[in-house]
Design goal:
Layout lengths: L1 H31 L11 E3 L5 E4 L7 E2 L9 H11 L11 H14 L9 H9 L6 H17 L2 H11 L6 E2 L1 H9 L8 H9 L13 H18 L4 H9 L14 H10 L5 E3 L4 H18 L6 E8 L4 E6 L27 H10 L8 E4 L18 E4 H6 L3 H11 L1 H10 L3 H6 L16 H12 L3 E3 L12 E3 L3 H12 L20 E6 L5 E7 L3 E8 L11 H16 L15 E6 L13 E6 L12 E7 L5 E2 L9 E7 L3 H9 L15 H5 L4 E4 L5 E5 L6 E6 L6 E6 L2 E7 L4 E3 L4 E9 L4 E11 L2
Parallel strand pairs: 1-5, 3-4, 21-27
Antiparallel strand pairs: 1-2, 6-7, 6-14, 8-9, 10-11, 12-13, 13-14, 15-16, 17-18, 17-19, 20-22, 22-25, 23-24, 23-26, 26-27
This protein binds zinc ion (2 copies).
One zinc ion binds next to helix 22.
Length: about 775
């Protein structure tokens, strides 16, 4: 017993010794010949539902797509293993039985056959293609053993499926599956799997699309073998046999090219990038935009971009970077969504929203829309007309420029700039030191992506979150840009349909989606914008030419908005069922219709307005003032000259100087306070205005090419509220006492008069020479 045990022990030692030295040898060889698996794969970009949007050739012009482990279905796995290497799961990389058999065959027939190749050895060969010599065969065997030591069986099979050639420049089962069957490998039928398993051995004679009947025959032979081996249930084999082979080389999809290129650049190390795009919405929108521009092309409007955002998740569902990617002539490959353009009026809703949160304005508040000069900057409205007095809501809906600049100058451009930076406007961050009041009229550069992100924040109760393009993108920022009350008021204003920027020709002919939207047209009519939202989606649209060429017909209302409406109708035809609800903290109150302020003692025309308790201004209306006048309403009195009898009181509009100027200039009738009692002691004792600039009888050189202006400035008595300036006896402007105004005088002798609101007057003369240097 003892003897035989020793002998047995010795055998064990031999075997163990052999295995140990075998592994030591392989490890030693690995140090000198390390295994390198660095194959480049085609980048593919997928939709949110994992359908293929776009694929890119490798740098060697191959279609070599990376098959994920989970895409290798049990059916695919067993069919391939059955066909290529039945003992794949049992051998250590080389199959000694088939090596022996092949060697015998080779010796007997005197030629080399490849029968001994395991899947692992094939992988070794695909990783390092070499001439077929005995030495290389040996090297392959070594590599195969190495592979087996370093990788799992599934990983080796995955490598095989990724590299196996399918003829031409197609490599790997995923590329073949996409190109020949238009589907991902995990969606292949058993018939398709069988067809794909036989092509790699004879890629020239079995070329799908050329001799499909022959391939079908060959496929069915293998399906029969599958059946005999009991690989699949008989009924599946039956179905597969009947399945006609429709394979042929098809075009790889090229959807959303701009975003796909962008993602490929952004994630250079990912073979497969899953985007947030919705294939159906992307397809439809691409088509709508392309056809829309085809109709406008003859007007010289050659490009358009659009972006569609899911408001709940901020995921981008459609990304149309140009009207036609294939159109080289008009820069189709330019990604217009990231192009920096002038926003026109599209930043106004944010400005009004900020002003609401600062308590300065509410929707029914009255603001003046008259020509004004803000430190040398004189904004004009789009139609070059002014409205005098207008509500905040109409000023925003009508996209008036003067009220917007007025509000911006009140809150200061810096506040708006900071908000834009908070809302991730990278472009604004870059330009922040060069921006002024014109910012809100488009005097800056932004991208469609930034604007759409901003509007999506307004649609989400004022909360900004960064947009998502990639499925697993988690680095997001969240910032409150507007209060939910303010966001709601802005939405209400932007939802009204009675507005000057409603597209002509649209009204009665087509379905108008219920959305909040704002248009914009940049200076020189180079950019037309329309950005809208409902509860579900935000859609941004830009139209123009990538060359920057302006077009007289281009504007946000008539050109960009119809496209916005079409896109909304295509993604969300009947959305309004789920509209925004009034936030709890938003309240309503009665205000005076003449000012939008809390009704004062004389206000009797009241209307309802939204306000934010504790935030919105509680200023009382003073739109009227009480004045003592004589019986014929020809003289007004103050308390010092009020007679004992024979007077009455009357209410007169309490107008701001700029509005008086506007009414006077435009011959608009308004109720004027009668001149003050000429016998009034205060009138006689109070000093008349003293003009401090310009200086009486001085000569002034005015550089007209530089639009130089002269300041009008005066001192007044304490009882004066407003002064009125006249140039050469013609009314020029009124001003609050103590406020300087500017003017460009005509050439020659100029008479300047200043009267105060008590009727006291001063005249001076200056001499003006125009220069142009
Ligand atoms: Zn009032
Ligand atoms: Zn008086």
């Amino acid at each position: 017993m003892k003897f035989s045990f020793d002998r047995y022990k010795k055998h064990v030692e031999y075997v163990l010794g052999f295995i140990v030295s075998y592994y030591i040898l392989i490890l030693l060889l690995t140090v000198f010949y390390p295994l390198e698996i660095n194959k480049e794969y085609s980048t593919i970009v997928l939709s949110r539902n994992n359908s293929l949007l776009h694929a890119f050739l490798t740098s060697g012009d191959k279609w070599r797509m990376y098959t994920e482990l989970e895409e290798i279905t049990p059916e695919l796995k067993s069919a391939i293993v059955f066909k290529e290497d039945k003992f794949f799961y049992y051998h250590p990389g080389i199959n000694p039985v088939s090596v022996a058999r092949a060697t015998v065959n080779n010796l007997r027939k005197g030629k080399r056959t490849s029968g001994a190749s395991t899947i692992t050895m094939q992988v070794a060969r695909l990783l390092e293609p070499k001439k077929r010599t005995y030495f290389n065969k040996l090297k392959e065997a070594f590599r195969a053993i190495q592979l087996e030591m370093l990788l799992s069986k599934d990983e080796i099979l995955q490598l095989y499926l990724n590299l196996v050639p399918y003829g031409s420049n197609i490599e790997g089962v995923k590329s073949a599956s996409v190109i020949y069957f238009g589907k991902m490998p995990d969606h292949l039928s058993i018939g398709e799997i069988a067809a794909l398993s036989i092509i790699p051995n004879r890629p020239l004679s079995l070329k799908p699309g050329y001799n499909n009947d022959y391939i079908e025959n060959e496929r069915n032979k293998w399906l029969n073998r599958y059946r005999e081996a009991g690989l699949f249930e008989s009924k599946f084999i039956e179905d597969a046999m009947k399945e006609p082979l429709t394979a042929s080389r098809r075009e790889i999809p090229r959807l959303a090219p701009h975003l796909c290129y962008r993602l490929k650049t952004q994630y250079p190390n990912e073979n497969s990038i899953r985007s947030t795009l919705n294939t159906e919405i992307q397809c439809q929108s691409e088509k709508i935009v392309k056809e829309y521009i085809q109709r406008l092309y003859f007007q010289n409007i050659k490009n358009a971009t659009a972006i569609i955002i899911d408001n709940a998740t901020r995921e981008v569902l459609a990304y149309i970077g140009s009207a036609d990617f294939e159109n080289d002539e008009d820069g189709g490959q330019v990604d217009g969504i990231q192009a920096v353009r002038s926003p026109g009026s599209t930043l106004k809703p944010l400005l009004y929203g900020i002003a609401i949160d600062k308590g300065i304005i509410t929707p029914k508040m009255i603001i003046t829309d008259v020509p004004v000069c803000f430190a040398g900057y004189e904004p004009e409205n789009y139609n070059e007309k002014f409205n005098g007095l207008i509500t905040i809501e109409n000023a925003l809906a009508g996209s008036l420029n003067v009220p917007a600049v007025k509000i911006l100058s009140e809150i200061s451009p810096q506040i708006l700039i900071n908000k834009l930076i908070e809302a991730n406007f990278y472009t604004i961050k870059q330009q922040k030191d060069d921006l002024g009041l014109s910012l809100v009229l488009g005097g800056c550069g932004v991208t469609l992506e930034e604007l759409a992100g901003l509007y999506s924040a307004i649609a989400n109760q004022g909360i900004y979150k960064s947009l998502k393009y990639k499925n697993s993108q988690d680095e997001t920022i969240t910032r409150t840009i507007l209060s939910k009350e303010s966001a709601f008021m802005i939405t209400e204003i932007l939802t009204q349909l009675k507005r000057p920027d409603f597209p002509v020709h649209w009204e009665n002919t087509m379905h108008t989606p219920k959305i909040a939207w704002k248009t914009g047209t940049s200076y020189g009519r180079r950019d037309a914008w329309s950005i809208g939202y409902n509860k579900n989606y935000t859609i941004g649209v830009w139209l123009g030419n990538f060359s920057g060429e302006g077009v007289p017909e281009l504007n946000g209302a008539d050109k960009a908005t119809p496209l916005l409406f079409q896109l909304f109708n295509s993604v969300d035809y009947n959305s309004p069922k789920d509209w925004f609800i009034i936030p709890d903290e938003l309240d309503m109150r009665y205000v005076c219709s003449q000012s939008g302020k809390i009704p004062g003692e004389f206000c009797n025309d009241l209307i309802i307005d939204y306000y934010i308790p504790g935030i919105s201004s509680n200023e009382t209306c003073t739109h009227l003032k009480k004045v003592f006048i004589n019986a014929d309403s020809t003289i007004s009195y103050c308390t010092s000259c009020l007679p004992e009898t024979g007077y009455k009181t009357a209410l007169y509009p309490n107008l701001a100087p700029e509005i008086i100027t506007f009414f006077e200039e435009n011959n608009i009738h308004y109720l004027k306070v009668p001149p003050h009692n000429p016998g009034c002691e205060r009138m006689l004792s109070g000093s008349k205005p003293v003009i401090t600039s310009p200086i009486h009888e001085n000569e002034y050189f005015v550089n007209v090419s530089d639009s130089m202006e002269i300041m009008l400035s005066c001192h007044t008595a304490n009882d004066v509220d407003n002064v009125f300036w006249y140039i050469n006896k013609k009314f020029y402007k009124s001003a609050t006492a103590g406020v300087n105004i500017f003017f460009t005088p005509p050439e020659g002798k100029v008479e300047i008069s200043c009267s105060d609101d008590k009727g006291r007057n001063t005249d001076i003369i200056i001499y003006v020479k125009h220069t142009s240097f």
